[in-house]
Amino acid sequence: MGMTDNQYNELKSLLYEILDNVSKITDKVGNELMTPSEVCELRKFSRSTYRRLVQKGIISQIRTVPGINTKVYVKRSEIERLIEEGKI
């Protein structure tokens, strides 16, 4: 039993729609998280200044699952809020 051309085209269309939605979700998540280097570049300060702000509790970090390749991120919305409040 094979697919008709109509069924194939409907399936293909649905697949493209799903891929587009996944891409949009990925972009939103990806744009929300920043690396410490991106934060430093955005605010034009050094890595030591960044570390000091983290130690003082001004900037909160998000860590991936602990292990050999633990990565650290900061929420873009938090950085934007801190900039608006004049804290960084």
Q: What attributes characterize this protein structure?
A:
three-stranded antiparallel β-sheet; elongated; 88 residues; 2 domains; 4 helices; mainly alpha; single chain
Describe this structure in words.
The protein has 88 residues and is mainly alpha-helical. The protein is 61% helix and 9% strand. It has helices at 5-32, 36-43, 47-55, 76-84, and strands at 33-34, 62-63, 72-75. The protein has a 3-stranded antiparallel β-sheet with strand order 1-3-2. It starts with a helix and ends with a helix.
Tell me how many strands there are: 3
One letter per element, helices H and strands E, the order comes to HEHHEEH
What value does the Rg take, in angstroms?
21 Å
The N- to C-terminal Cα distance equals 64 Å
- Helix-strand category: mainly alpha
Number of helices: 4
The proportion of residues in beta strands is 5-15%
Q: What's the arrangement of strands in the largest beta sheet?
A: 1-3-2
Provide the low-confidence segments as ranges.
none
* Count of domain modules: 2
Largest sheet: 3 strands, antiparallel
Anisotropy-based shape: elongated
Average per-residue pLDDT, rounded, comes to: 85
Helix content: 55-70%
Summarize this entry quickly.
61% of the residues lie in helices and 9% in strands. The chain is built from four helices and three strands; from the N terminus they run αβααββα.
Secondary structure layout:
Layout: H1 5-32, E1 33-34, H2 36-43, H3 47-55, E2 62-63, E3 72-75, H4 76-84
Antiparallel strand pairs: 1-3, 2-3
